[in-house]
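G., before I forget:
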Amino acid sequence: AQSVSQHNHHVILSEAASLELGCNYSYGGTVNLFWYVQYPGQHLQLLLKYFSGDPLVKGIKGFEAEFIKSKFSFNLRKPSVQWSDTAEYFCAVNAPLSGGYNKLIFGAGTRLAVHP
Amino acid sequence: EPEVTQTPSHQVTQMGQEVILRCVPISNHLYFYWYRQILGQKVEFLVSFYNNEISEKSEIFDDQFSVERPDGSNFTLKIRSTKLEDSAMYFCASSRGQGASSYEQYFGPGTRLTVT
């Protein structure tokens, strides 16, 4: 069965520090990969996605992620975090089904706290 | 920008009662989903729905659960006889259609269900 692992459950950083959140998945076939963010009290928002092509994808708010197929990884990065990046971050993989619809399989989430 | 909306934002019910959670997906989307997140746990897929029928459901989605698209705009999740362990945040999501665009799911703000 597909699964998604996020290595860090809780990360605490100071403003301007660099961020890297790990995500690994277990699935040998074609995958589509996502990072979602959930700000306090808000709903899940898509940060970035990878379907195909350039393995380095750029998302909103200065985030980027790199798909490394050989490592089954899709790590999220940001060179310099801000206090407003405080949120929970979820890595997700889609599981293609017949007919074009699919479900997302989520990791456990990483709670990021950025201190000013 | 179009959004997925959900009502109510918080529902408190007694064990054994029926609840209906409501969602209005984005208007030109064709695929609909329900996910849930028990407090402190990962977001879990419940069910996907397309063309007025369930396309896939998880093992969580047992006979106590049902989904319906009663009109052209609403998408509902019914829990027939709630249990304490149904307490969770329930997220509705929708996606556009076939091909790569179907892989991007847009999430609603969630309904927090508390079963007492």
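Chain A has a mean pLDDT of 90. The CA atoms of residues 43 and 59 of chain A lie 17 Å apart.

More on Monday.
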